[in-house]
Structure formats: structure tokens, C-alpha cells
Amino acid sequence: MIFSVFGNLDKKDVRALAQEVSKMLSGQQNKVVFNEKYTTSFSGGNCSFMTESDMYKACDIAVVLGGDGTTMKVAKNAAVNGKPALGINGGRLGFLSAVERNELSLLESVLKGEYAVDERIMLEASVIKNGKIISTSHCLNDAVLSRGDFARLIDIDIKSDTADMLRVRADGVIISTPTGSTAYSLAAGGPILSPDLNCFVITSICPHSLMDRSIVVNSKFTLNISVRSDVSNNAILTCDGEEPVEIDQDCIVSVSLSDYKAKLIKVKPDNFYQIVKKKIIERGS
């Protein structure tokens, strides 16, 4: 079995964690792969080094060391390559992680094949201008259309396929997957959704309305979002907190169900609501 290990190994604590994980996962029939830029940090007969893109192609399991942001990024890239991801929490919350840093003995279950794979739907968010797609991103958490740096509300129209669905005056709007419902959408007042649901949740950011509420929609619909405000040149689309794309009044943001599903490895019997209770409610975060 080939394990590709991802994470910011420039950090001393993450690098130390990677060395522990490497020792546990490597064996006569197993190989651990690291990014080629870390060739001086790791050694051993069962360690090898590749480019990041080749790491995804070569592995059986993508092992992620870090917090939810790192896990989310790696899980998306692994999904595109049809590979599962195993998160080991090296951050603060670790909501997507299967194993805490003090639970590395659970990796024995992975070596024995004693684990489950939790599939999560993703979004595909495309920016269309004058009939041409200028960017496409896949999102495990959310696609966020917001006002950017300009301190004024923006007017947003949302259509479901060909029907008018919603008109919002707000700082922005979040289109979230069930996985992302515990992230930015939750902070903006949205509901927590079970990750096995096939739906999206639309949550406004600081809406100028006393009656605004989140809306849950079936994932079979395509949402077409446009900005009507005269400050629309300052609107931006951000997918999973990554590089923003500027949106103007000639743009339509099309959000639909991605063809890819993230595959998260589970080695503990905790169900989703136990994790919510432990990592969100009891921590008060």
C-alpha cells in the first residue's frame, strides 16, 4: 500500500508528526511518499519523494497532517484523482480529521484495512461571462459571493435553473455543502446538516432584513447567482477560502453538484452528531 503524506512540513511540529506517522505506516509491503522538496527531512528504505501531483496519482491513501483547511484542500485534490483521504489532526478543531495526534495507534486499523470511507458531496462553482466559462472550482465546504473590500451592501439574485428563487441585500451569500454547514455558514447563522444529505444550504451574510433565513435546496438544482449592485466590480467569489475571483455585473456564478465526491477515511465509531457535540458544542467554538 502506498501512503502519500501531505501537510506543511516546514512547521517543526508537523514535521515531527510526519516522522511519527511515517514510522507507523512504512513496512515491508507499504511505502510512504513525501513531497520532493522534503528529501533532506526524511530517510528510510520505504520512503520516496515525488512532485505533489504525482503523489496523488501514485497513492492508495492520501494522509493529511494539519487542520481542517489543509484536510479540505487535500481531500478535494484526492477526490479528483479518485483517492480517499485520511486526516490526522495537527490543527485546532480537526472536524474533518479521523485521528487526533494522541491516537496514532489507530493507524494500525488502516494498515489492516479496518476502516470505513465517508463520501461527501462537493460543489462545482463556475464563473460565466458573456457566455464563456472563465473559471471553475470544486468546493468541499462552500462557495462565497461577497462584497469584497467595499463597505456597502450588494444586491444578489439567485435563480434555480430558470425560476427566480431569492433576492438578497447583504454583505454576501454562502452556498454550502452539508460538510460546509459547520463552517462559515454556521457562523453566519445557518443550520447544521448531516453530511450524508444531498442538498445545499443558502445563507446570507449580514442581510439587511429581519426576516432573512437560510434556505436548504436539493442538490439536483443548478443555482445561478448574479450581482445587481453598481459596486459589483468589488464583488468576489471565494471557493473554500482559496484564491478569490472578481465578479462584475456581466458575470453569472453557476453553482451545481460536482461530479466528484470527497472520500474521508473513518477509523472510529463516532457518528456525526457525537463529533458536533464534542468539537463544536462542548468546546464552545
TrEMBL record:
Main location: cytoplasm
Active site as annotated: D68
Transmembrane segments: none
The UniProt record lists the keyword NADP: yes
Localization annotation: Cytoplasm
Enzyme Commission designation: 2.7.1.23
Leader sequence residues: none
HAMAP family associated with the record: NAD_kinase (MF_00361)
Stated family: Belongs to the NAD kinase family.
Any Pfam family hit: NAD_kinase_C
Gene Ontology cellular component list: cytoplasm
Catalytic activity: NAD(+) + ATP = ADP + NADP(+) + H(+)
Keywords linked to the UniProt accession: ATP-binding, Cytoplasm, Kinase, NAD, NADP, Nucleotide-binding, Transferase
Protein name per Swiss-Prot or TrEMBL: NAD kinase
Domain of life: Bacteria
Metal-binding in keyword set: no
Requisite cofactors: a divalent metal cation
Positions annotated to bind NAD(+): D68, G69, K73, N141, D142, R152, R169, D171
GO MF term set: ATP binding; metal ion binding; NAD binding; NAD+ kinase activity
PANTHER family hit by this protein: NAD KINASE
Function: Involved in the regulation of the intracellular balance of NAD and NADP, and is a key enzyme in the biosynthesis of NADP. Catalyzes specifically the phosphorylation on 2'-hydroxyl of the adenosine moiety of NAD to yield NADP.
GO process annotations (BP): NAD+ metabolic process; NADP+ biosynthetic process
